[in-house]
Amino acid sequence: MSISEERSRRYTFEPDQLTPVTNPEELKRIHEKTGVRPLPDDEQAWIAEQWKLRFDTDPELSTFKLSDEYRQLKAQGKI
User: Fold this and answer.
1) What pLDDT is recorded for position 2?
2) Is the overall model pTM greater than 0.70, yes or no?
3) Are 42 and 49 in contact (CB under 8 A)?
4) Segment-wise mean pLDDT, segments of 10 residues, the chain, 79 residues
5) Contacts of 7 (CB under 8 A, 6+ apart)
6) Nearest alpha-carbon partner for 43 in 76, 66, 75
7) Based on the number of CB atoms within 10 Å of its own CB, is 44 exposed (0-12), middle (13-18) or buried (19 or more)?
8) Which domain of life does this protein belong to (predicted)?
9) For residue 79, how many other CB atoms are within 10 A of its CB?
Protein backbone atom coordinates (compact mmCIF):
# COMPACT_ATOMS: atom_id res chain seq x y z
CA MET A 1 0.00 0.00 0.00
CA SER A 2 1.50 3.30 -1.02
CA ILE A 3 0.79 6.74 0.33
CA SER A 4 -0.43 9.23 -2.21
CA GLU A 5 1.99 12.01 -3.06
CA GLU A 6 -0.49 14.67 -1.90
CA ARG A 7 -0.91 13.01 1.52
CA SER A 8 2.83 12.53 1.83
CA ARG A 9 3.43 16.24 1.18
CA ARG A 10 0.82 17.17 3.76
CA TYR A 11 2.86 15.55 6.54
CA THR A 12 6.36 16.23 5.25
CA PHE A 13 8.10 19.48 5.97
CA GLU A 14 11.26 21.08 4.75
CA PRO A 15 13.50 22.78 7.33
CA ASP A 16 12.61 26.28 6.11
CA GLN A 17 8.85 25.62 6.31
CA LEU A 18 8.60 25.47 10.10
CA THR A 19 8.91 28.44 12.40
CA PRO A 20 9.56 27.89 16.11
CA VAL A 21 7.00 29.40 18.45
CA THR A 22 8.83 31.67 20.89
CA ASN A 23 6.09 34.06 22.02
CA PRO A 24 5.38 33.18 25.69
CA GLU A 25 1.65 33.93 25.37
CA GLU A 26 1.34 31.76 22.27
CA LEU A 27 3.24 28.95 24.01
CA LYS A 28 0.92 29.25 27.00
CA ARG A 29 -2.14 28.94 24.72
CA ILE A 30 -0.63 25.89 23.02
CA HIS A 31 0.15 24.24 26.37
CA GLU A 32 -3.39 24.92 27.62
CA LYS A 33 -4.94 23.59 24.41
CA THR A 34 -2.85 20.41 24.18
CA GLY A 35 -2.27 19.73 27.86
CA VAL A 36 1.38 19.13 27.02
CA ARG A 37 3.93 21.15 28.96
CA PRO A 38 7.71 21.02 28.70
CA LEU A 39 9.67 19.52 31.55
CA PRO A 40 11.60 21.87 33.83
CA ASP A 41 15.14 22.53 32.55
CA ASP A 42 16.84 20.64 35.39
CA GLU A 43 14.68 17.55 34.85
CA GLN A 44 15.19 17.64 31.07
CA ALA A 45 18.96 17.94 31.49
CA TRP A 46 19.06 14.98 33.92
CA ILE A 47 16.94 12.82 31.58
CA ALA A 48 19.15 13.71 28.59
CA GLU A 49 22.30 12.81 30.52
CA GLN A 50 20.86 9.53 31.79
CA TRP A 51 19.68 8.66 28.27
CA LYS A 52 23.21 9.07 26.95
CA LEU A 53 24.62 6.90 29.74
CA ARG A 54 22.04 4.10 29.51
CA PHE A 55 21.01 3.98 25.85
CA ASP A 56 23.29 1.10 24.87
CA THR A 57 22.69 -1.01 27.97
CA ASP A 58 18.99 -0.66 28.85
CA PRO A 59 16.56 -2.09 26.28
CA GLU A 60 13.57 -0.90 28.34
CA LEU A 61 14.77 2.71 28.50
CA SER A 62 12.11 5.39 28.09
CA THR A 63 11.92 9.07 28.87
CA PHE A 64 8.75 8.41 30.86
CA LYS A 65 10.59 5.98 33.15
CA LEU A 66 13.51 8.37 33.48
CA SER A 67 11.14 11.20 34.37
CA ASP A 68 9.52 9.03 37.06
CA GLU A 69 12.96 8.08 38.38
CA TYR A 70 14.06 11.72 38.45
CA ARG A 71 10.99 12.76 40.42
CA GLN A 72 11.43 9.91 42.88
CA LEU A 73 15.11 10.71 43.44
CA LYS A 74 14.35 14.42 43.79
CA ALA A 75 11.62 13.71 46.36
CA GLN A 76 14.13 11.62 48.32
CA GLY A 77 16.62 14.50 48.21
CA LYS A 78 19.16 12.49 46.20
CA ILE A 79 19.21 14.98 43.34
Assistant:
1) 65
2) no
3) no
4) 66 78 94 93 97 93 96 97
5) none
6) 66
7) middle
8) Bacteria
9) 13
